[in-house]
């Protein structure tokens, strides 16, 4: 029974901070992150709360990764205005399946920052992160991690539970379509996807009643940690948006954002 809990699940959480119109919008980041996390299922939030006392907001890795904490079964990081390569590295690392097929992989991505009007695409310094880019990259990872040849003779693989939280857009924008279109398995593991309150039909069963009427108490403790972490954001945070942003998609068109807005 040694380290039995480790074989239950692995949880990886990433907070992604995008562009802002001006420095005065920095306080909105904490609010958006809290709202995004509040869309997670209760067991995800319990996992965060169980590690709060271990998180110390002084572990800055780089200009893009302003916070990083990692254990065998838990990882939490915050990316500040990440580049396209930082996003692909994040997804490749976070969606890497655990070697043990009995381990469920929980991946939570929470975005805070500017969004494109109507679609809720994420505005980052040198590109716009879209659901199409996201799905295409998972397809790429699926080819890198095909299902084992003898999968039929192995125990069934636990799923990858993927949650995307966009606190400032209740509907989830275009991201909600990721729920209705099954993602390609990675390493023989199927996906269970949720975007805000929109969840796939294959959501995990739970005998515990859930209460979504108010934020879980754990997030109030987490807010003070976030505020301390956000106090170490770069100053100035970013330059005003003054040029077109490149949409990284198969056709690679240019999306001109004249008046981006926070919902």
Automatic annotation (TrEMBL):
Source domain of life: Eukaryota
Keywords of this entry? Signal
Q: Which residues form the signal peptide?
A: 1-18
Q: How is this protein named in the record?
A: SJCHGC06148 protein
Species source reads Schistosoma japonicum
């Amino acid at each position: 029974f040694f380290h039995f809990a480790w074989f239950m699940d692995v949880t990886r959480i990433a907070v992604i901070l995008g562009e802002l119109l001006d420095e005065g919008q920095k306080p909105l980041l904490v609010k958006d992150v809290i709202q995004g996390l509040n869309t997670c299922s209760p067991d995800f939030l319990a996992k965060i709360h169980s590690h709060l006392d271990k998180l110390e907001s002084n572990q800055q890795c780089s200009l893009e990764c302003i916070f990083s904490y990692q254990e065998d079964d838990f990882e939490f990081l915050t990316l500040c205005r990440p580049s396209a390569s930082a996003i692909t590295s994040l997804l490749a690392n976070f969606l890497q399946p655990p070697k043990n097929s009995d381990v469920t992989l929980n991946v939570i991505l929470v975005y805070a920052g500017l969004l494109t009007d109507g679609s809720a695409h994420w505005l980052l310094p040198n590109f716009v992160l879209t659901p199409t880019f996201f799905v295409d990259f998972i397809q790429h990872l699926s080819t890198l991690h095909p299902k084992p040849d003898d999968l039929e003779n192995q125990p069934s693989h636990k799923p990858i539970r993927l949650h995307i939280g966009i606190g400032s857009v209740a509907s989830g924008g275009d991201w909600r379509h990721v729920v209705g279109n099954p993602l390609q398995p990675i390493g023989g593991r199927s996906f269970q996807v949720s975007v805000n309150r929109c969840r796939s039909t294959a959501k995990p069963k739970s005998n515990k009643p859930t209460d979504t009427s108010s934020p879980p108490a754990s997030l109030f403790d987490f807010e003070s940690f976030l505020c301390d972490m956000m106090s170490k954001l770069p100053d100035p945070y970013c330059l005003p948006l003054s040029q077109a942003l490149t949409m990284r998609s198969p056709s690679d068109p240019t999306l001109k954002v004249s008046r981006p807005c926070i919902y």
